[in-house]
Write a structure and sequence with these properties.
With about 180 residues, this protein is an alpha+beta fold. The chain is built from eight helices and three strands. The protein is globular.
């Protein structure tokens, strides 16, 4: 995970900063063509930064177990049980074709938890309107050193590192 953080996440941040500078220059010049041309880089690198920022806070060396309180109540209401939610999210996450993310999210419009998946570094809220609570990175850079190309083993293991306090805090913030 240290390599993942220090190399991959840092690259998204650096490239986002460069792209934002170019975008500001294009904006100042009124260069709409360049502004449009930069949007994929903004989405990719901005999404990579946003997604990873959530990911790091979602994990803890003391994580795992089950959520408590209002988060657990919402999981039981919307999925039937914690195990069913884990199973649905794991299946959706493993099924991401290529690279992307699996998400436990909050649908503010319907006040419900939802499972979603995004390709590449697409930011969940910016592309779906769902508020991210828990993200699982399934780009191979997240797991190849330890799990090689066995994504299901990585997804199964990551549940042992989930920081449920952080996910609960994210739910509270999302409901405001």
């Amino acid at each position: 995970m240290q390599l993942h953080h220090s190399k991959h996440h840092a690259t998204y941040v650096n490239n986002l900063n460069i792209t934002e500078e170019k975008y500001q220059e294009a904006l100042a010049k009124g260069d709409v063509t360049t502004q449009i041309a930069l949007q994929p880089a903004l989405k990719f690198n901005g999404g990579g930064h946003l997604n990873h920022t959530i990911f790091w806070t979602n994990l803890s060396p003391n994580g795992g177990g089950e959520p408590q309180g209002e988060l657990m109540d919402a999981i039981k209401r919307d999925f039937g049980s914690f195990e069913k939610m884990k199973e649905r999210m794991s299946v959706a996450t493993v099924a991401v074709q290529g690279s992307g993310w699996g998400w436990l999210s909050f649908d503010k419009e319907n006040s419900r938890l939802r499972i979603a998946a995004c390709a590449n570094q697409d930011p969940l809220q910016g592309t779906t309107g769902l508020i991210p609570l828990l993200g699982i990175d399934v780009w191979e850079h997240a797991y190849y050193l330890q799990y090689k190309n066995v994504r299901p083993d990585y997804v199964k293991a990551i549940w042992n590192a989930v920081n449920w306090e952080n996910v609960s805090e994210r739910l509270q913030s999302a409901k405001k």
